[in-house]
Design brief:
Layout lengths: L10 H9 L4 E6 L4 E4 L3 H5 L3 H4 L4 H4 L9 H7 L3 E6 L5 E10 L5 E10 H7 L7 E4 L14 H13 L6 E4 L6 H10 L8 E5 L8 H6 L17 H4 L4 E5 L6 H13 L1 E2 L8 E2 L3 E6 L3 H6 L5 H7 L2 E4 L8 H17 L5 E2 L1 H9 L5 H15 L4 E2 L11 H4 L14 H20 L2 H8 L3 H11 L2
Parallel strand pairs: 7-12, 7-13, 8-9, 9-12, 14-15
Antiparallel strand pairs: 1-2, 1-5, 3-4, 4-5, 6-8, 10-11
Helix pairs in contact: 11-13, 14-16, 18-19, 18-20, 19-20
C-alpha cells in the first residue's frame, strides 16, 4: 500500500536524482563496508564512486578524512554530526544517520556530506555553479611553476591566448584547470570583458539549457515572469569557461555544438536568434576520448572543443613546482592569518616526497592547515597532517638510519613484520589472500592478524 507522502518515481530516475545531488551521499552496511556513494565524492576526495565502493572503513579512515562519525554511530546507534577535513584539505560537515532492521540492529548508516566553503559561498543557488568576473576586479596571482613541462604549457598559452578557437584543458582534480583558464583570459585581449565560469556538474540537468541560453517571459511553468538572460549572453565579448564539460547531458550536446560553431543561440520561448562573441574554454578530469567510444559524449563536440588541447600534468610529475608552491602558500597564509611561520628542513623534505594525489588544491589546503594550527614559529615534521607520513605514499621511513634507533634486531624485524601484515590486511581484508600475498600459511596469518591488527 502506497504511503500518503509517496509519489510514483521510476527507480532509475530516483538513482539519477541521488547521483546528481550536490551533497555527497555515502551508505555503509552493517560491517563497515561502503556500499554506495554518489559522484559528489570526487569533489571531496579526488576518487570516483567506482574506486571507493566496496572499500572497508579501515581503508578510508585517516586516509580520506579525520574525526570520523562512523564508529560513534555504530556504538551509540544515533545520529552523529561532525566537521571534518578531507585528504584534499576540504572542510566538510558530515551528518550520519543509522538505519535499523526489524530487530533494531543497524542495517545501514547513511551519510550526508557537504563542504562548508561552498555551502557558505553559495548564498544564491546559482552561485553553486556560476562565477562571473567582470574585468574590473584585481588580477589573480601569477601561475607559479619551475618545471619544464609547465614552462612548455605556458608557452602554448601565450600562443593561443588571443585565438578565438576553443581550448580544452585536461588534468586531474586540483591541478589548476580553472586557474589556468582565468590566467589565459587575463592575459588576453578580452581581459576587460567578462570571464564567466560554469561548473556543468553542479547544474540541474533539467535546467542547463535555460541557464546557458536564457528564456523569455512565460517560456515554461515556474519561469521568472520577466524572463532571464542566459550565461552565454552574459559572457558576450569575453570568455566562457565550461568546467566539467563531460557532465553536459548528451541530448544538449548538439545544441552546445551548434552554439560553439556559429556563436548564435535562441533563448527558450523565443523565435529570434542572437549572436555573441565569446571564447570557449572547456575543462574536464575525465577521458573524453573514452566517453566518445562509449557513446556518452558526442564525437563532433569533442573534436570541436579540442582544437587546442592543454593537458596539465599532476603535481607528482612536476616535482620542481612543489617547493615553489609550498613557499608561495606558506607566505600567502602567513599574511592571510597574521602568522610568521617558517618551515623546518625535515618538514620541507617530507612535503617534497609526498605524492599529492589532490594536486595543487591539496597542497594549498595542507599549507593553510599547518599555518593556522602550528603554535611555535617553526613548522616541524610533527606539525604535518598524519596522511603526509603514509609509508605507502612517501616511503619516508625508508630513509631513516635504522642503526641510530636503539632497537634490537628482533624488534626491528618485528616492526617490518607488523607493517607488512597491516598493509596486506588493509588491502585484502581476507586472511586467505593475505597469506597468499605474504607467502605464509593461513594459520600463521591468523596469528599475526590477531597480534598486529587492533
Amino acid at each position: 500500500m502506497k504511503k500518503q507522502n509517496q509519489y510514483p518515481v521510476a527507480t532509475e530516475d530516483l538513482w539519477q536524482i541521488i547521483e546528481n545531488l550536490h551533497d555527497e551521499i555515502m551508505v555503509y552496511d552493517n560491517d563497515y563496508h561502503l556500499v554506495f556513494v554518489n559522484k559528489a565524492a570526487e569533489r571531496h576526495y579526488g576518487k570516483t564512486a567506482e574506486e571507493l565502493i566496496g572499500t572497508h572503513f579501515s581503508q578510508l579512515d585517516e586516509t580520506y578524512w579525520s574525526n570520523s562519525t562512523l564508529p560513534e554511530v555504530y556504538e551509540k546507534k544515533k545520529m552523529v554530526v561532525k566537521r571534518q577535513i578531507t585528504n584534499l584539505g576540504l572542510d566538510i560537515i558530515t551528518i550520519s544517520v543509522p538505519i535499523f532492521d526489524e530487530q533494531g540492529n543497524i542495517k545501514y548508516v547513511a551519510q550526508n556530506v557537504n563542504d562548508i566553503y561552498n555551502y557558505n559561498k553559495m548564498g544564491k543557488a546559482e552561485e553553486a555553479f556560476l562565477e562571473i568576473t567582470d574585468g574590473t576586479e584585481p588580477r589573480e596571482e601569477s601561475f607559479l611553476y619551475a618545471s619544464e613541462n609547465m614552462k612548455s604549457i605556458m608557452e602554448t598559452i601565450e600562443k593561443i591566448k588571443n585565438v578565438k578557437n576553443p581550448c580544452l584543458i585536461l588534468g586531474e582534480t586540483g591541478t589548476g584547470k580553472t586557474f589556468l583558464a582565468k590566467y589565459m583570459h587575463q592575459q588576453s585581449i578580452r581581459k576587460q570583458k567578462p570571464f564567466v565560469a560554469v561548473n556543468c556538474a553542479c547544474m540541474n540537468p533539467n535546467l542547463i539549457e535555460s541557464e546557458l541560453f536564457g528564456y523569455k517571459k512565460g517560456a515554461f511553468s515556474g519561469a521568472n515572469t520577466a524572463g532571464k538572460k542566459g550565461i552565454v549572453e552574459i559572457a558576450d565579448g569575453g570568455t566562457l569557461f565550461l568546467d566539467e564539460i563531460s557532465e553536459i547531458p548528451y541530448d544538449l550536446q548538439g545544441k552546445l555544438l551548434h552554439f560553439i560553431q556559429d556563436q548564435e543561440f535562441m533563448a527558450l520561448g523565443s523565435e529570434k536568434k542572437q549572436k555573441v562573441d565569446v571564447k570557449i574554454i572547456a575543462a574536464t578530469n575525465r577521458n573524453l576520448a573514452d566517453m566518445v567510444k562509449a557513446k556518452t559524449f558526442r564525437e563532433d563536440l569533442y573534436y570541436r572543443l579540442n582544437v587546442f588541447e592543454v593537458s596539465i600534468p599532476p603535481l607528482r610529475e612536476r616535482k620542481n613546482d612543489i617547493e615553489v608552491l609550498i613557499r608561495h602558500y606558506l607566505d600567502k597564509y602567513n599574511e592571510c592569518h597574521f602568522r610568521n611561520h617558517t618551515l623546518s628542513e625535515d618538514a620541507m623534505e617530507i612535503l617534497l616526497r609526498y605524492k599529492w594525489h589532490g594536486n595543487v588544491r591539496e597542497l594549498s589546503h595542507v599549507m593553510e592547515k599547518v599555518v593556522v594550527l602550528t603554535n611555535g614559529k617553526e613548522i616541524k615534521a610533527e606539525n604535518l597532517p598524519k596522511m603526509i607520513f603514509d609509508i605507502g605514499e612517501n616511503k619516508y621511513e625508508e630513509k631513516q638510519d635504522i642503526t641510530s634507533e636503539k632497537k634490537s634486531l628482533r624488534e626491528a624485524l618485528e616492526d617490518v613484520e607488523r607493517k607488512m601484515v597491516q598493509e596486506a590486511y588493509q588491502k585484502y581484508q581476507n586472511s586467505v589472500k593475505v597469506a597468499q600475498a605474504l607467502g605464509v600459511s593461513q594459520p600463521t596469518v591468523y596469528r599475526l592478524i590477531k597480534k598486529y591488527i587492533p
